[in-house]
Amino acid sequence: MKVPFLDLKAQYFTIKEEIRLAIDEVLESQYFILGPKVEELEKNIAGYSHTTYAAGVSSGTDALLVSLMAIDIKPGDEIITTPFTFFSTAGVIARLKAIPVFVDIDPLTYNIDPDKINEIIEEKNKNSNARVRCIIPVHLFGQCADMDPIMEIAKEHNLYVIEDAAQSIGAEYKGKKAGSMGDLGIFSFFPSKNLGGYGDGGMVVTNNQKLYEKVKILRVHGSQPKYYHKIVGGNFRLDALQAAVLMVKFRYLDQWSQKRRDNAEYYNKRFKDSGLEKKFIKIPEPIYKHSQDKNYHIYNQYTIRTQGRDRLRQFLKENGIGTEVYYPLPLHLQECFNNLDYRRDDFPVSEEASSCVLSLPIYPELSEEQKEYVVKKIEEFYHTQ
Questions:
Q1: Are 168 and 178 in contact (CB under 8 A)?
Q2: Residues 259-271: tens digit of each pLDDT
Q3: Mean pLDDT of 302-321
Q4: DSSP code of residue 238
Q5: What is the CATH number of domain 253-383?
């Protein structure tokens, strides 16, 4: 049996006619850049995310970049974030010649640890040259970071907060939607996301009108009106074709996210019942230690910790099961950040996670037979050890 890590063809088959009609409508209009389709998507994403404003942009990476530009990040400014994330979180900081300041993660959720944010700020405050301006918490794998203490820290120290919710559209923290808690929030519409386009796309959401207006200006080369430039922006516009595709898929978003949650529950139960969870596997923890409030994990990835990760991954590959490692090397150990003078063991929780995390197929179209096969093969691997 084959179980791909992600099967977008299976998803496309269920909505093919709707997608083709939506694309044809754009082709008939010949309105390809921004315009009514993008505005419709922006309105829907803002409402869905419980924010007042939304601005469509060219990718999740550009959503982060334009958000930093909107808060006027300058060379030498320091931005606190996690080393256990996709590269763009720190890459956009470096592109503006600002400085990524990494903070280790919580071992249960893989999200940035608020206690360690406090520690680094206290340390920075001893240095009169410190220029911490912003915190970028990442809502990794579909689960929000622990936002209450992060927002309290930001308020105390007069810092901006940009939520990197690229993987977490629709996730909730204590009943609050991902993207709605910071000064700005960003989403990615990369094809593999719960809401993915047929190419790159992204969105910036906010409740701050001034920041929203600035993002809209920055995404069109900083022009307002057209051909008159008070600031330097970039070409960060969302295509109408992507917006049309996303509007079709948006109607199914909650349904698909719930199916991912159902698949995660299946894995959790099977791994617990088989005894693998205690002996060999640590399943995802969709909780916060000090909260009984509503937290909603959308499982963009179902990521386990495993013993013998690389051997297990090879075994599953040989048996037709796709997996992925998010992420094999934390950002503080990437060669391009050598100038930051971080060393191995600086962030031990992130480094340990990178050595043993493995993401399993979790997409909504997984069949019962495919899920059963994945579990059976993992059982077979460990029972023969």
A1: yes
A2: 999 999 999 999 9
A3: 96
A4: P
A5: 3.90.1150.10
Per DSSP (E only), the strands in the chain are 53-57, 78-81, 99-102, 132-136, 160-164, 172-173, 176-177, 184-188, 202-206, 281-282, 295-296, 302-306, 357-360
Q: pTM, whole model, 2 decimals?
A: 0.95
pLDDT higher than 80, residue 151: yes
Domain boundaries, the chain: 8-103+110-250, 253-383
For the domain 8-103+110-250, what is the CATH code?
A: 3.40.640.10
Q: Round to whole Å and give the CA distance between 96 and 90.
A: 10
Q: Are 371 and 363 in contact (CB under 8 A)?
A: no
Tokens 């399943």 belong to residue: 283
233 Cβ contact partners less than 8 Å away, ≥ 6 residues apart? 66, 69, 217, 218, 219, 220, 221, 222, 223
In one-letter notation, the amino acid at residue 286 is P
Instruction: Please give the mean pLDDT across all residues of the chain.
Output: 95
CATH topology of 8-103+110-250 equal to that of 253-383? no
Q: Which of 298, 308, 301, 258 has its CA nearest to residue 283?
A: 301
Closest CA to 82 of 51, 49, 107, 57: 107
Residue with tokens 């698949």: 263
pLDDT, residue 6, reads 97
What is the per-residue pLDDT for 162?
Answer: 98
**Does residue 287 register a pLDDT over 80?**
no
Tell me the residue length of the chain: 385
CA–CA–CA angle 253, 257, 259 (5° rounding): 120
How would DSSP label each residue in 343-359? -TTSSHHHHHHHHHEEE
- Which pLDDT tens digit goes with each residue over 11-37? 999 999 999 999 999 999 999 999 999
Query: Is 291's pLDDT higher than 70?
Result: no
Whole-angstrom distance, CA of residue 249 vs CA of residue 251 = 5
